[in-house]
């Protein structure tokens, strides 16, 4: 079965990669692609439709899934439209930077439609999350610091992936809280987790967790070298989720199957 995918934010850094990744996937095709100004930039291989007509495009094209990499407000609007659509359409989003309130509303969409949110669609990051949890369990009392580095156009900090890694660190050890961008005269507080967000040039995305103590250090690093890796993971997720029943799914559900 060919899974028909609608792409939002199609002229964005990720939207363009998603259009290309759908084209490369043997079981997927673009149902339609939207951006807010379809008269502006072009995307090779697909006509662009106006984002303002997203609801009616869902009705006329009946895609199996939407793949969304936009911004938190837009992602929520697109998810609401999928919930309201007559035919079932799954919503796969990699958008990050949601407020707690917005994220709760996004997750509620999973009561009506198949929903999958992942802050990082690189398979290596899923492995990193697992390994970080194990390292924290194995090294109680070690100082933990997290450094994430991205291009200078990224809006949210810390990154969605950093937040996911922080949850994994905190779930697997005893910590005193997070210290974002340390400064001042005080030494490191025992048990704090240092969090550092670098923004520079066109770096695709790096995450490093440092664990240090006992005259030794462990550094666990993931480096994405091309955005295509995120897009391929998101399209794999869309192909997997099409036809699933309503519910909230994780990228690990796709990888582990
Ligand atoms: N989960 C993952 O693996 C990854 C997640 N991301 C996340 O994806 C999101 C998009 O990243 P990226 O493609 O680099 O961003 P870009 O700014 O390059 O693209 C975002 C696109 O979203 C659309 N958009 C809709 N509403 C808004 C809004 N209110 N503000 C800005 N843009 C809006 C715009 O397209 P238009 O005007 O055409 O509608 C824009 O082109 C971010 O949240 C990022 O963190 C990024 C990489 C990987
Ligand atoms: O904005 C980006 O570029 C990226 N965002 C995601 C995040 O916030 O974790 C994933 C990836 O690191 C690239």
How would you concisely characterize the structure shown here?
The protein is α/β, with parallel strands linked by helices and 257 residues long. It folds into two domains: 3-121 and 227-256, NAD(P)-binding Rossmann-like Domain (Rossmann fold), CATH 3.40.50.720; 123-224, Dihydrodipicolinate Reductase, domain 2, CATH 3.30.360.
Task: Write up this protein.
GO terms for molecular function: 4-hydroxy-tetrahydrodipicolinate reductase; NAD binding; NADP binding; oxidoreductase activity, acting on CH or CH2 groups, NAD or NADP as acceptor. Catalyzes the conversion of 4-hydroxy-tetrahydrodipicolinate (HTPA) to tetrahydrodipicolinate. It is found in: Cytoplasm. Homotetramer. Residues 3-121 form the Dihydrodipicolinate reductase N-terminal domain. The chain contains 8 helices and 12 strands. The model has no long low-confidence stretch (mean pLDDT 97). The longest helix has 16 residues, at 123-138. It is an alpha/beta fold and 257 residues long. The chain has helices at 13-24, 54-61, 72-84, 100-108, 123-138, 160-171, 228-241, 251-256, and strands at residues 3-7, 28-35, 48-50, 65-68, 90-93, 114-117, 143-150, 177-180, 192-199, 205-213, 216-224, 247-249. The relative contact order is 0.17. The chain has 2 domains: 3-121 and 227-256, Rossmann fold; 123-224, Dihydrodipicolinate Reductase, domain 2, CATH 3.30.360.10. Helix 1 crosses helix 7 and helix 3 (72-84) packs parallel to helix 4 (100-108). It is elongated, with a radius of gyration of 19 Å. The strands form 2 sheets. A 7-stranded parallel sheet has the order 3-2-1-4-5-6-12, with helices on both faces. It has a 5-stranded mixed sheet with strand order 8-9-7-10-11, covered by helices on one side. 35% of the residues lie in helices and 27% in strands. Bound molecules: NADPH dihydro-nicotinamide-adenine-dinucleotide phosphate and the ligand O=C(O)C1=N[C@H](C(=O)O)C[C@H](O)C1. NADPH dihydro-nicotinamide-adenine-dinucleotide phosphate (NDP) is lined by residues 9, 11-15, 35-37, 51, 69-71, 73-74, 94-97, 118-121, 156, 160, 230.
């Amino acid at each position: 079965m060919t899974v028909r995918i609608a792409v939002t934010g199609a002229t964005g850094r990720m939207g363009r990669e998603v259009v290309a990744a759908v084209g490369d996937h043997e079981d997927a095709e673009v149902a339609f692609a939207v951006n807010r100004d379809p008269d502006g930039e072009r995307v090779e291989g697909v006509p662009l439709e106006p984002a303002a007509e997203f609801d009616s495009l869902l009705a006329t094209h009946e895609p199996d899934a939407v793949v969304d990499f936009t911004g938190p407000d837009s992602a929520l609007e697109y998810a609401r439209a999928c919930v309201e659509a007559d035919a079932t359409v799954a919503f796969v989003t990699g958008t990050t930077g949601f407020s707690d309130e917005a994220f709760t509303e996004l997750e509620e969409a999973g009561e009506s439609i198949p929903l999958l949110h992942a802050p990082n669609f690189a398979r290596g990051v899923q492995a990193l999350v697992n390994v970080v949890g194990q390292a924290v369990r194995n090294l109680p009392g070690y100082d933990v610091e997290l450094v994430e580095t991205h291009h200078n156009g990224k809006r949210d900090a810390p990154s969605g992936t950093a937040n996911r890694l922080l949850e994994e660190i905190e779930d697997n050890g005893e910590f005193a809280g997070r210290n974002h961008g340390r400064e001042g005269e005080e030494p490191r507080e025992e048990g704090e987790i240092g969090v550092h967000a670098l923004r520079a040039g066109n770096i695709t995305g790096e995450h490093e967790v440092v664990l240090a103590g006992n005259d030794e250090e462990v550094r666990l690093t993931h480096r994405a070298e091309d955005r295509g890796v995120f897009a391929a993971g998101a399209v794999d997720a869309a192909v997997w989720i099409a036809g699933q029943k309503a519910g909230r799914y994780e990228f690990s559900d796709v990888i582990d199957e």
